[in-house]
Amino acid sequence: MLDTQSALLTVNQMTEADRLTIAAGTAEEVLMERAGASVAREIIKAWPPCRVAVLCGPGNNGGDGFVVARHLADAGWDVQVGVLGPRDRLKGAAAHHARLWSGLTAPLTPAVLDSADLIVDAIFGAGLSRALDGPVAELLAIAARTAPIIAIDVPSGVIADSGEASGAVAAKLTVTFFRKKPGHLLLPARHFCGKVVVADIGIPPSVLDMISPQTFENDPILWRGHFPILSGDGNKFTRGHALVWGGYRMTGAARLAARGAARAGAGLTTVTCPEVALGVYATALTSIMVQPLGDQASFVKLLADERITGLLIGPGAGVGEQTRESVLAMLATGRPTVLDADALTSFQSDPETLMASISGPCVLTPHNGEFARLFDPCGDKLLRTRAAARRSGAVIVLKGADTVIAAPDGRAIINSNAPPTLATAGSGDVLAGIILGLLAQGMEPFLAAAAAVWLHGEAARTFGPGLIAEDLPDLLPKVLGTLFSQI
Ligand SMILES: NC(=O)C1=CN([C@@H]2O[C@H](COP(=O)(O)OP(=O)(O)OC[C@H]3O[C@@H](n4cnc5c(N)ncnc54)[C@H](OP(=O)(O)O)[C@@H]3O)[C@@H](O)[C@H]2O)[C@@H](O)CC1
Ligand SMILES: [K+]
Fold first, then answer.
1. Which cofactors, if any, are listed as required (predicted)?
2. Which residues participate in the annotated binding site for K(+)?
3. From 321's CA, which of 163, 233, 310, 344 has a CA 20 to 30 Å away?
């Protein structure tokens, strides 16, 4: 199992964590007390005492709100509490903490927001079961114009499992408990969460042994121990040989990918390209070898060289029959293969053939458009990426600001370190190359893809504004240096 420190829990898994903790002897009221107290602590840490409106819903999220109200009032803050629906509808731990609130409560109307300097959103959390009612959505819209919002668990309107967010407004801070939920990372919900703080409310991490989470936030902790480490007695051949299928006329894409592979540590990187493009590739590449492609038979012969340990086709390949044939020839080797861009689109009229040909380690790196040409685009991003991985038998990297990496066995990783500067031409080609470089060195495809996505994001993050794809490969040494110094 992957390290559960970065596990993301579904609503059902969080409920189970809660249940196991209660069964082991911690009362539900105590968990709620700790949850609300942790939110109050974060508020007190970040803001000076002021007038706060706490908006409480009808469930346990509202119960947390009552705890926050009590702690802030005890600390001398001016607190107004608004409650959705009749207060006597609250049950269990929420009813208990509502009783402990000795101040007044008002109905949940815009009047509660009058003169508020800060607003606590405790309307709905994990239990949101349907779209927000009009009045609640209107109240939230007014709240967003009134003062900074602190959301408990998730901003109301956010579906924690899927990242959908109808009617939600942007919080400055979201305090969640024990572990993040997918909705804290997936778009559009991520944009509404603001800064996310995970509070320890005394749920023991050992409950995760029973829950076996399958979704994780991308973090080196997941794959650092599997990263190819150079050994003192290795040579360029033991570090893997990466082969990139280079197209013509779009030669830049394959060159970017090849540089990504080499910087990710492949001992040898070769671009094979049509004779006519040899000069272009050779002038632009120095340590990366360039080899003429010849006809399909000679390509198949080249692939027979068992020293080649990783294959990539797609960047600048062109959509068509030659690309299709080359993809199938690569997949037939059973060696680790990355399929990107045109290699995917070349199968849009016949995805079945592609799926049926994947038997070895394989990573597909579509963006949303390419994904929709091959797979069912319905459902939230986690769901559809997982379904595509299961269907294809390949690791799927569904790219975007919230890239999801899914394995055929159901594991999934959501990436969160990609800055918007990565949305630039050629950036995906470099990513495909980094994955190739790691695969060529023998890293497991799912973890190689996760590591590559993270390194790619981190490289862009360290660079800042003005980034172009050419910068990315050369930023990897610094990122890798920092990473290795932590091993
Ligand atoms: N698990 C844990 O470890 C811990 C959890 N904790 C806290 O509990 C929270 C989850 O609590 P929860 O399950 O009571 O759900 P919550 O979000 O309060 O809402 C449920 C209520 O809202 C209602 N309702 C739903 N949608 C609606 C809509 N659109 N419009 C109107 N009504 C709607 C729904 O009604 P129903 O669907 O039943 O008709 C029900 O009455 C979690 O987010 C965290 O803050 C902490 O205390 C620490 C430990
Ligand atoms: K909330």
1. K(+); Mg(2+)
2. 61, 121, 156
3. 310
- The answer to whether residue 487 scores a pLDDT higher than 80 is no
In which element (H, E) is residue 467 found?
Answer: none
pLDDT of residue 132: 95
Which residue did the predictor score with more confidence, 238 or 164? 164
**Domain residues of the chain, as ranges?**
4-213, 220-485
Considering only CA atoms, give the Rg of the chain: 26
> Burial, 415: exposed, middle or buried (Cβ in 10 Å; 0-12, 13-18, 19+)?
buried
CATH match for 4-213 among 3.40.50.150, 3.40.50.10260, 3.30.70.20, 3.90.1200.10: 3.40.50.10260
Q: Evaluate whether 157 touches 140 at the Cβ level (below 8 Å).
A: yes
CATH code matching the domain that covers 220-485, chosen among 3.40.190.10, 3.40.1190.20, 3.30.450.20, 3.30.420.10: 3.40.1190.20
Interval between CA 58 and ligand 2 midpoint (Å): 11
DSSP tag of 165: B
Closest approach atom of ligand 1 to CA 160:
43
Ligand 1 mean position to 226 CA, how many Å?
Answer: 39
Q: Give me the amino acid identity at 26.
A: T
pLDDT digits (tens, 9 = 90+) for 129-187: 899 999 999 999 999 999 999 999 999 999 999 999 999 999 999 999 999 999 999 99
Contact 148, 119 (CB under 8 A): yes
Report the binding-site residues. Answer: 60-64, 121, 125-131, 153, 156, 253, 316, 367, 399-403, 428-429
Close Cβ partners of 277 (under 8 Å, ≥ 6 residues apart): 246, 247, 248, 249, 251
Q: How far is the centre of ligand 2, averaged over its atoms, from the C-alpha of 122 (Å)?
A: 4
How do strand 51-56 and strand 118-122 relate by DSSP bridges? Answer: parallel
Mean pLDDT of 26-37: 98
- Closest protein CA for atom 48 of ligand 1: 32
In short, whether 66's Cβ falls inside 6 Å of ligand 1 is no
